[in-house]
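Thread: "does anyone have the structure for this chain?"

Original post by V.I.:
We have the sequence but no experimental structure in hand. Need at least a predicted one for the grant figures.
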Amino acid sequence: MNTNNIHTTALPLTGRVLMAAIFVMSGVGKLMAPAATIGYIQAMGLPLAGAGLVLAIVVELGGGLLLALGYKTRLVALVLAAFSVLTGLLFHGAIGDQNQMIHLMKNLAMAGGLLQVVAFGAGAYSLDAKALAATGGRRAAA
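Reply from O.Q.:
Generated one for you, tokens below.
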């Protein structure tokens, strides 16, 4: 495989969209059934379940859409990776339950993929690349 043009292929876009899909779907699910999510958060013994619901929706739905679009991609991917690890440990860290272990490993695998996005960026087909091109290849001041 020629890696010289890997960032100009649709592979990074495809990867971002595939990773974003689980977050967007989960965020929409929480938006449509908030009581179920609040009940699950409470069942885990965590405080401020309502605030947790809002935070989860913002991170999953907002972060998922931003990841798919490739906007502020490295930062968004880092937040989603941290969210995946944290929620995996808090909600799926039951030792001895094979189903929960699979969910935990799924969260950790997603975090690994997101860290690849942090390391390598959004690719050519992203709002980040469009903004970089608009500045003549210079990054805007933070």
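V.I.: this helps a lot. The radius of gyration is 17 Å.
O.Q.: and Residues 38 and 50 are 6 Å apart (CA to CA).
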